[in-house]
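Lab meeting tomorrow. Look over both lines:
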Amino acid sequence: MKKNTITLKHLVTKFTLVESRSSFIIGILFFAAVLILSGCKDDGDNTSPDVAKLIGTYAVEETDMYASVDNYTITISKSQAGGANIEISNFGDLLFVPIKGTIVGNKLTIPSQSFTASTTIEISGDGTLSGNNLHFDYTMESGGDLFEYSCEAVKQ
């Protein structure tokens, strides 16, 4: 059997051919990746199905810790953040910015959040959705005072 001797010139020629082919192969792979990625469609709305159950306008009957009752409406909409995130407008019939919250299953969560105007107000709470009825409790702290509220809301 004849032995092939590999010379330096032979190795350089082999590597040169591989490099020129590898550039072509890399180009083909890049082109294929661009085609594949451009074919992917954006799912767009990644909103949780639980949010769809909750969005709408609600007539609220709010009872404070002194048994005073107030009636007003709130609007719950899906958040730009998507997922289980929602926003509640006209919260407590006093805030001009939406409150952020989440809904998972039938459980509403209003995480602690602060708002500052002439004073700082901190709000947090939770609730439960049952059909078209939403029950939620929340606390509001302002100037060192803590206020508690219980709300019954009916979807309109």
Remarks:
- The first strand starts at residue 56 and ends at 64.
- The chain has two domains: 1-40, 49-155.
